[in-house]
Structure formats: structure tokens, C-alpha cells
Write a structure and sequence with these properties.
The protein is mainly alpha-helical. It has one domain: Growth Hormone, Chain: A (Up-down Bundle), CATH 1.20.1250. It contains 21 helices and no strands. It is globular, with a radius of gyration of 20 Å.
Length: 396
């Protein structure tokens, strides 16, 4: 939650900071924002398996705490960056130090029984949702003191998180379950190839990749979209992100578990994808702030897909491989996060610049809806592979 607060703090001021540092228009600022997101995601892709495997060797606790310390220092660097070049350097460092999702997910796998992991992964999403309630709202208010202030506070939150972990966080990976660190397993490209040994996991990973590419439209363009479409100030952008965070926290912390118990993991994922497609088409054409907020609770229901798919895969590997699996999962997410910002911000620029053939700030959401539909089709076509797995057999 503290980590999400730190991330959420900077989102409302990101467009204004890029415009200020680069002296560019909103359309071009969005494109630069896409390149900065690309840089961040590329580092997460390269270092996600490394940190996940490192946690399999030395434990989850030290990896999480040390990474948070460096993340805090990196936020301070962004707070003083006078040029786009230094912002890019800062995003490289933050991408490396922020590649700990796989470690956090492995930590949760250590303490979860098979069949419970999907619901428990939802608690991570719930914690992030709560963080995004507080972070963007605070960031929007702090913007009144300048676009740099949220970065300073974000750094403080990251260091606070590290301090909290140092005194409170126990280690969950016992010595007998640790394995020797192998560079081969930490290679992000070789780690992806290992999925071939688990066909059902491989097909679900493909769905994760396509669906994540689609849903990265939100962090990629939300701030730029709402400022361009509705003329919002940073405080309103922060408020909207906070409102969505409430919906996402309820969805992943409460509704996900109920849906899985009632419908099973697979049906929950399908329903979530169908809802997401409808929500993205709605955002393509919405022209009212009121309608945007009224649609948020339904839009947030699409957040059940990620934890459901992640739990399906986690149940297929051994306890000593959870860090590696979550590292691969994080790498797949990172690849989608590399592609999506470049794609979505390019579409946004093309449909908002002065020479645009049609003015449609919501065009990236339409592209995301198409990708989500493709993910649903792939998920449906791969059902025969999943039915051959123990998880699918249990669901039947």
C-alpha cells in the first residue's frame, strides 16, 4: 500500500512536469511520457527475473527492503531533474529498483495454500487500490506547492516503507527451500522460454501478455486523456485516480474472492474480460465527467482478471519455483508495459494534435478494447490445454 501511495503521488503532475521540463505541447508530452514509461518497463523486464531468483536464494525480505531504499533515493533524483535526459536516467533506476513485484508475489505464494492463491493475489491488488486512493489524491493536493513536491513526498513514502519492512516484515522462505542462484534462470529471455515446459501456463501467459498490453492504456494515458478531454487540473486527476482506487480495492480485496468461490477461477477471468471490453468502449466515447465517474465501479470489475490468471499459474509449480514463476510473470507484464505506452501515447498524439484527421482523445481505449477481445478469444481457444491440468480438474 505504501509503495502504491508513492507511485500514485506523481501521476497527477506527470503531464505538467514533462511539459515544463521539455517545453512541449500536451500531445507531444504524452508521447514523451510513453518513452519514459517504455524505459521504466524495459528495466523491469530485464531485472524482474533477476530479483525474483535472487529472492529464491537469499529470501524475500532483504530483496524487498534494499530495493525500497534505492527507490526512495530515485524519487528524490526525479524531484530535482532539470532535463528530460535526467528524467530518463531516473526512470532507468526506478525501473530496476521497482522490479520487486515478483518478489512480493512469491512472498505471498510462500504463505498461501494451492487453490487460495488467486484470491490472495487479489489482496495485493486491494492494497495497491487503497494506495491509489490516497496517493493520487495527496499528489493532486501537493501539486498546489509545485510539480516537484509529490516526488519528494513519494521518496519519503518509499523510505518509510523500507523502514516499516525492516522492523515488521518476517522472512517466509525457509533455508531448506532456498536454491542456488543461477544466472541462466535470471536471464529474462531464457526465463520466458522455460514456460514451454508447462503448456497450460504458457497459454495463460500469452493471455496475460495481450490483456496487460490492453489495460496498460490506463497508466499510459489517463492523466493526459482527462486533461485533454475534460480540461481537468492535477487535483481533479488525482481525485479521479483515487476514486478508481476505491473501486479497484473493493474489487480485488472483496469481490474477487466471492466470484472465485461462486464461479471458479476460469469463469471469473472470462467475466472480467467481457466487462473490461465494454468499459474500454465506453471510455472511447464518454464526454461527461459525471458519466465517467458513474462508470468507474463497473470498469474496476475488470481488475479480477490479473489475479485470477496469476493464481491459475501459481498452482502449477512447486514451492521452490514460485519466485522464478513470478519473475517470468513480471517479465511478461513488463514486456506489455514496454509496448503499450508507446502504442497508446502514439495513438493519443495522432488523434489530438492539430493535424489529426479526427479529434478523438479516447482512441487508445478503442485499441485496448480490440486487444482485450483478442485475449478473450485466445483464452477460450486454449481451454482444452487447461482442462488437462489438476487445477482445471478440481474446478470441474
Amino acid at each position: 500500500m505504501l509503495d502504491a501511495i508513492g507511485i500514485g503521488l506523481i501521476l497527477p503532475v506527470w503531464p505538467d512536469l514533462i511539459k515544463q521540463v521539455g517545453d512541449v505541447s500536451m500531445a507531444d508530452a504524452a508521447l514523451w511520457g510513453g518513452f519514459l514509461s517504455f524505459t521504466y518497463a524495459a528495466m523491469q523486464f530485464l531485472f524482474g527475473p533477476f530479483l525474483g531468483n535472487l529472492s529464491d536464494r537469499f529470501g524475500r525480505r532483504p530483496v524487498l527492503i534494499v530495493s525500497l531504499v534505492f527507490m526512495g533515493l530515485d524519487y528524490f533524483l526525479m524531484a530535482i531533474a532539470p532535463t528530460l535526459l535526467l528524467l530518463f536516467v531516473a526512470r532507468v533506476l526506478s525501473g530496476i529498483t521497482g522490479a520487486t513485484y515478483s518478489t512480493a508475489a512469491a512472498y505471498l505464494s510462500d504463505t498461501s495454500e494451492k487453490g487460495e492463491r488467486s484470491a490472495n493475489f487479489g489482496y495485493i491488488g486491494g492494497a495497491f487500490g487503497i494506495g491509489f486512493v490516497l496517493g493520487p489524491a495527496i499528489g493532486g493536493l501537493l501539486a498546489e506547492f509545485g510539480v516537484r513536491m509529490p516526488f519528494i513526498v513519494a521518496g519519503a513514502f518509499a523510505l518509510l516503507n523500507a523502514l516499516f519492512g525492516y522492523f515488521v516484515l518476517p522472512e517466509t522462505l525457509s533455508e531448506d527451500k532456498r536454491r542456488k542462484f543461477e544466472w541462466r534462470r535470471a536471464n529474462p529471455f531464457l526465463a520466458l522460454l522455460r514456460v514451454r515446459r508447462l503448456p497450460a501456463v504458457g497459454s495463460v501467459m500469452l493471455v496475460v501478455f495481450i490483456y496487460s498490453t490492453a489495460n496498460n492504456v490506463y497508466p499510459s494515458i489517463w492523466s493526459f486523456f482527462t486533461i485533454e478531454r475534460f480540461g481537468w487540473q492535477p487535483s481533479m486527476v488525482g481525485f479521479s485516480l483515487g476514486a478508481y482506487g476505491i473501486c479497484a480495492a473493493i474489487t480485488q480485496g472483496v469481490i474477487l474472492g466471492i466470484m472465485i468461490k461462486r464461479y471458479g477461477v476460469e469463469r471469473t477471468a472470462v467475466v472480467g474480460m467481457l466487462i473490461s471490453i465494454g468499459a474500454l468502449m465506453f471510455l472511447t466515447v464518454v464526454d461527461s465527467t459525471l458519466l465517467l465517474f458513474l462508470g468507474m465501479p463497473i470498469t474496476a470489475l475488470g481488475a479480477v482478471v490479473g489475479p485470477a490468471l496469476q493464481g491459475m499459474m501459481a498452482d502449477q509449480v512447486g514451492d521452490d519455483e514460485q519466485g522464478e514463476l513470478q519473475g517470468v510473470f513480471a517479465s511478461v507484464i513488463s514486456i506489455s508495459a514496454i509496448i503499450s505506452p508507446l502504442l497508446m501515447t502514439f495513438i493519443f498524439q495522432q488523434f489530438t494534435q492539430q493535424s489529426a484527421p479526427v479529434y478523438l482523445p479516447g482512441a487508445p481505449f478503442a485499441a485496448a478494447a480490440v486487444l482485450s477481445a483478442i485475449a478473450l478469444i485466445v483464452f477460450y481457444l486454449s481451454r482444452s490445454e487447461r482442462r488437462a491440468t489438476p487445477l482445471a480438474a478440481d474446478e470441474r
